[in-house]
Amino acid sequence: MNYQTLLFEVQEAVAYVTINRPDKLNALNAQAKSELREAFEHCRTDDAISVVILTGAGEKAFVAGTDIRELTALNPETGKEFSEEGQSVFNLIENLGKPVIAAVNGYALGGGMELALACHIRIAGENAKFGQPEVNLGIIPGYGGTQRLARLVGKGRGMELILTGDQIDAQEALRIGLVNKVVPLSDLISTARAMAQKIASKGQIAVRMALKAVNMTHETNLTDGQALEASLFGLCCGTEDFKEGAKAFLEKRKAEFKNK
Ligand code: COA
What we know:
Elements lengths: L5 E6 L2 E6 L10 H16 L5 E6 L4 E3 L4 H4 L4 H19 L5 E5 L2 E3 L1 H8 L2 E5 L3 E3 L13 H9 L1 H10 L2 E3 H6 L5 E3 L4 H13 L3 H12 L6 H16 L2 H11 L10
Parallel strand pairs: 2-3, 3-5, 4-6, 5-7, 6-8, 7-10
Antiparallel strand pairs: 1-2, 8-9
Helix pairs in contact: 1-3, 4-5, 5-6, 9-10
Bound molecules: coenzyme A.
Coenzyme A binds next to helix 2 and strand 6.
């Protein structure tokens, strides 16, 4: 894996994917999107990886949006394709089958905010700024933002952010439920790592089933969602991890999961 726009490393079951164009505030150009797809495909298929942390290089930006230079050539036909292609990369992240934590280390604007929205958990540095400024350019969010933002923070708040293009800071993002927690920037990666390692220490079959079930929250009605939950719960009950987890509790010791 030789990336031009990403840094990629794996430590103790956690993959760190860092978008690395700090001089352009990590704006997503075509190459970065293509490499993101490649890196997340790798994360999906590598059994040594349990959790992914996604962040941006430098101390100023997570991702300041799609690369605006590449937007200028779009016409109605190529614009639709551009949107669909970006959506498919972000859908890969949301449906990775493994938890992805966004460590938001600065500006998360436009496609950068949509990228954070596609992750399962968002931790923000105190310097983080969120916004969907596409209306300022005469376009709308095209990488899933019109759909994911309102599902996360409610239709009224999502609508306001998308219609005004306003930026909000980390504390406001926390208040409206856009991020899970806010920490000093210097603690951002260590906080994300601690959460990732905690998740990685659990039985990974249960983690993946939980991820699948909760991911369906906005895709289905309560009845069908609960039917899925019951099926996945049943599958968990057939695992060695479940036997070990319950036995370890009764024996008052830490469970040793084998992810089987
Ligand atoms: N696409 C392409 N380049 C971008 C970019 C983007 N989305 N965001 C930042 N950059 C580039 C700038 O062009 C500049 O490059 P240069 O040094 O070659 O001129 C560099 O990153 C630094 O950005 P700059 O604007 O000088 O930093 P700033 O601190 O003054 O402002 C922002 C920071 C985030 C407020 C500002 O860069 C911005 O508004 N970016 C665009 C955000 C946006 O609209 N995103 C949605 C796109 S759909």
